[in-house]
Amino acid sequence: MRLLLVHPSALMYSEIFLRLEPLGLERVAGAARAAGHEVRVVDLQVSAGRTLSREFKTFRPHAMGISLNYLANIPEAIQVAKAAKDADPSCFVFFGGHSVSFVAEDVIEQAGGAVDAVIRGEGEPAVAPLMEAVRDGGVDGVPGVVTANGRGPEPRMLHSIDDPMPARDLMRHRRRYFIGELDPCASIEFTRGCPWDCSFCSAWTFYGRSYRKASPEAAGAEMASIREPNVFIVDDVAFIRPEHGHALAGELERRRIRKSYYLETRSDVLLRNEEVFQRWVRLGLRYMFLGMEAIDAEGLDLYRKRVSPDDNFRALEVARRLGLIVAINLIVDPAWDEERFRVVREFALSVPEIVHLTVMTPYPGTEIWHTESRRLTTRDYRLFDIQHAVVPTTLPLDVFYRELVRTQAVINRKHLGLRNAVGAMRVLGGNLARGQTNFARMLWKFNSVYNPARQMADHQRPVRYELPLPRHLDVGDRKQLFVHTRPAVRPESRPQPE
Ligand code: B12
Ligand code: SF4
């Protein structure tokens, strides 16, 4: 069977900092190929819409799957599905990915017949049974499937994340993937899932709070096959288990692999496992993203982050000592007033780290989707990108955006200050010499992308597709939030948050 896989466009507000390869979709492609199907991939983050139309015409896929990790991409994906069905009504169109797994039934309904199925949960174990069922007729028995007839059997979970290998060779514009100055940049997954349970996050609910690790041999072999000099490690929280971090490092040392790495982790994990991170710095670890979320204990408790402000500040000191460039994230509550923004600006200017701001957003699949008592002011999928306010703001909305963008601009200027500009120019020179222009473009795009008038205008666009309203679940029973309900590892082998 011929299968065309599609990744939607990049979200405008993140595109200036990064654009990364769609690793999940590549793994689904790898699984389909291993089952004998002919697969092509179009990534609309780096290819124009006309490439997709051309591919659709010439490849004549029996099925087309669209990746929906981000809610904000849902309207675009429905449009792509409709165009495909208009061009060839016999093509089986399906969606899969993180976010769509939580709103599958609603999306099927909204697409009005253009989407035949949504696959909830992990795509690797589902794609081959789905393709077989498409060929033979009757997809309703495929694990994880949702169709207009309702839900099929529970989604299956991979026993081991060691395979399939992502089909990186199918991506035609690999040089367009970058994160900051790591340009070009590939991605890799060492672990899957997260054992914590922060109230604003759906990483733990998607995987039913399970946690799986790639074997050092498989991870080493995969890393050896990556051509890019830079690698983004996609794990939700890197190196939770120190022995795993050491084993991976040992494997890369043995294979003499050296690259520049970017990873995400938590402050308490960094404090606990400092020597692992130190060893990785020797292997090329340069950037670290720390989800601090709040600078006060009250905020941290509210998000059930299970760390203290003191842990966060000690972790920053450790990272500085290790010579890492750290980006920290803070969640902006729509309730913030001008004074709160001022305090955060002051904080951001007082630390050498890159401070990233995201707006508190209740997402389907998170606990706050069910518990947030403030009503949604919009249900436009496109605004659920953590750069827009979707619950009432204390400040008038235009003033809120003015303060938000002002704070982001102050932070951005800090990073483009003289000392940094010199450093940036050095990196830029090196990248341009190698024909890499992604980082250069990013440096000049800030003002056109982050603009309060534009953010206000985003709220005025006509809305065609809307998020469903939250159902008020009793979140005392966490399993009701899970996509994968059966753990793939024995519960006692899961690390527990402290
Ligand atoms: C790495 C990561 C990123 C990376 C890379 C993203 C990329 N290009 O893929 C970066 C740093 C760029 C990023 C950015 C953002 N991210 Co992000 N990201 C993640 C993270 C931590 C892991 C994703 C990943 O690569 N997993 C590993 C791969 C193998 O799994 P996967 O992609 O989920 O794919 C599997 C399934 O989803 C499914 N699947 C995927 N596609 C398809 C397609 C088909 C057809 C099928 C059948 C199945 C299927 O099968 C795959 C294999 O099992 C997730 C959290 C999580 N644990 O999922 C958040 C997450 C997806 N991100 C999130 C957010 C909010 C963002 C940003 C908006 C943040 C921001 N403001 O900048 C941006 C937007 C990026 C954009 N598109 O423009 C939210 C999504 C929120 C939402 N509901 O929309 C998540 C869930 C984190 C959270 N806080 O809850 N992100
Ligand atoms: S630690 Fe990170 S990935 Fe895990 S639940 Fe909290 S925010 Fe999500």
TrEMBL record:
Its cofactor is [4Fe-4S] cluster. Residues 8-141 form the B12-binding domain. It comes from the Bacteria. Gene3D superfamilies: Aldolase class I, Cobalamin-binding domain. InterPro entries: Aldolase_TIM, BchE-like, Cobalamin-bd, Cobalamin-bd_sf, Elp3/MiaA/NifB-like_rSAM, HpnR_B12_rSAM, Methyltransferase_Class_B, rSAM. NCBIfam families: HpnR_B12_rSAM (TIGR04367). This is Hopanoid C-3 methylase HpnR. It comes from Actinacidiphila acidipaludis.
